[in-house]
Model the fold of this input.
Amino acid sequence: MLSLKRELIGQQAMFTKPIQDLETATEVSYEISRMIAKRSRPFNVGDFVKECIEIAAKKMCPEAAKKFEKIQLNRMTIQRRIMSLASNIAEQLNEKTKIIEFFSLALDESTDISSTAQLLIHTRCYSRF
Done:
């Protein structure tokens, strides 16, 4: 009975391990996409980042290098990830604004060295919850 249980667990692990690896690769792809967007880099930087990761993985831990190949960082994937992150933030803001009772709004415009106008918007919200 014990050997059957071990065999079943081994068979189940064969299916769950690849799924966990793919989920981790997707999480890493989202994190790198967030960093690319945060630093206002072009979307095709993801391909360069992936090449760097693969080189480092092959040199430092060759047995795990195949896991890094699963990370999707091409230009279109980065674009979709950033759009997904942006829509999630918009949804969160919409949900939070439904409970706001009072708010204040401060606006400030300035021009930088290259004569580009910069607009700063600051809000402070109050709710009883």
